[in-house]
């Protein structure tokens, strides 16, 4: 806040919030003689990182449409972006040369990754969360290749790791713990849960594709050899949809967090030894309370995307948020609300002269 509006960027607020969550996620090893890398409540505190990633991506996608920016609504934002951004990379020049139909499709893909895919962050099916992870990483890598936004994109990729699990990380490191389980999963006939999860996964992909085609009028023009796209909904329809889903998304987050808390409580009960069981339960109680508090106050900046939903929050949540607002431990996000550089970008030019004739 020292630089006020001149140095106030959302990725600085994101760094503050992510840094504060790291305090809760980092291991607290008070009893060092019995310290382990795993704790029963790790899933609870790590869930906050996933919730932060969801708020960041979903709000960033929504504000592009609520801002009524004509380039975002016309799907032409990327035809300006690569050449008018602050610090383009060498890859931005090549991206700018891509055909207009591909630029418009890229905007559609951005909407899908930022608005629709984040709903999969809380999916009970593991493969859907992995799909969401790689979608977010793909978007951030493409941004890194075409623009320089300091640590922002790398930090977002780090937050996306909250969508992974130990098994997937183990495969990266070459020491998967479920080789035997994976071989057993190939047995025939498959279990009922395996069939249902596959059907749900395919249904999610199909719904995602159908939503994209319907909302953005995707059509392949074989004669012109291009992919046509356009926004097939109005501003009023979008705001009505946003008003209808904001509070249910809060409920979805609450249910997901409740599941993590109950799962952690069960893991505490499975700890061996009466003393260590009580010690794990005490830590669970402390961190679960802190997590619920952080989730509650984060609802205020999250519901800024729809002020009607914001007004329906319990007044006590607003009071809690007002008490900690100055510390910026929770923030509202909405990146690239309006596309800059449309019609030329104004620049400040300073000139000086020693003889009042030759100006530099």
From TrEMBL:
Q: Enumerate the UniProt keywords alphabetically.
A: Endoplasmic reticulum, Membrane, Transmembrane, Transmembrane helix
Give the record's GO CC terms. endoplasmic reticulum membrane
Q: What is its main location?
A: endoplasmic reticulum
Segments crossing the lipid bilayer: 14-31, 43-63, 105-125, 137-164, 241-262, 282-305
- Tell me the Pfam families matching this sequence: LMF1
As for subcellular location, the record says: Endoplasmic reticulum membrane
For the biological process aspect of GO, one term held by this record is:
protein maturation
Q: How does it sit in the membrane?
A: Multi-pass membrane protein
Q: Which domain of life is it from?
A: Eukaryota
Membrane as UniProt keyword: yes
Please report the stretch or stretches of sequence annotated as the Lipase maturation factor 1/2 N-terminal domain. Answer: 8-169
According to its UniProt record, which protein family does this protein belong to? Belongs to the lipase maturation factor family.
Give the protein's function: Involved in the maturation of specific proteins in the endoplasmic reticulum.
PANTHER family to which the protein is assigned, alphabetical: LIPASE MATURATION FACTOR, LIPASE MATURATION FACTOR 2
What is the official name of this protein in its record?
A: Lipase maturation factor
Query: Could you tell me which species this protein originates from?
Result: Calonectris borealis (Cory's shearwater)
Gene from which the chain derives: Lmf2_1
């Amino acid at each position: 806040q020292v630089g006020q509006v001149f140095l106030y960027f959302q990725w600085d607020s994101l760094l503050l919030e992510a840094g504060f969550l790291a305090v809760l996620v980092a291991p607290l090893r008070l009893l060092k003689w019995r310290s382990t890398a795993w704790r029963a409540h790790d899933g609870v505190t790590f869930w906050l990182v996933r919730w932060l990633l969801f708020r960041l991506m979903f709000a960033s996608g929504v504000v592009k449409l609520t801002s009524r920016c004509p380039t975002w609504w016309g799907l032409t934002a990327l035809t300006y972006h690569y050449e008018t951004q602050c610090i383009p990379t060498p890859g931005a020049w090549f991206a700018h040369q891509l055909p207009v139909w591909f630029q418009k499709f890229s905007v559609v893909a951005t909407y899908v990754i930022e608005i629709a895919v984040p709903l999969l962050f809380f999916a009970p099916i593991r493969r859907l969360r992995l799909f969401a992870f790689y979608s977010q990483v793909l978007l951030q890598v493409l941004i890194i290749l075409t623009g320089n936004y300091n640590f922002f994109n790398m930090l977002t990729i780090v937050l996306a790791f909250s969508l992974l699990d130990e098994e997937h990380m183990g495969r990266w490191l070459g020491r998967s713990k479920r080789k035997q389980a994976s071989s057993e999963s190939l047995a025939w006939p498959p279990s009922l849960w395996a069939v249902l999860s596959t059907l749900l996964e395919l249904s999610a992909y199909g719904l995602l594709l159908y939503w994209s085609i319907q909302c953005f009028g995707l059509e392949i023009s074989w004669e012109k050899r291009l992919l046509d796209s356009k926004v097939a909904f109005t501003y009023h329809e979008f705001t009505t949809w946003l008003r209808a889903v904001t509070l249910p998304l809060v409920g979805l987050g609450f249910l997901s967090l409740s599941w993590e808390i109950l799962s952690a409580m069960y893991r505490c009960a499975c700890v061996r030894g009466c003393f260590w069981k009580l010690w794990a339960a005490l830590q669970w109680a402390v961190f679960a309370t802190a997590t619920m508090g952080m989730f509650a106050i984060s609802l205020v900046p999250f519901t800024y995307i729809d002020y009607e939903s914001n007004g329906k929050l319990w007044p006590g949540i607003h009071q809690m948020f007002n008490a900690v607002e100055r510390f910026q431990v929770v923030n509202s996000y909405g990146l690239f609300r309006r596309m800059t550089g449309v019609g030329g970008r104004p620049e400040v030019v300073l000139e000086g002269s020693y003889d009042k004739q030759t100006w530099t």
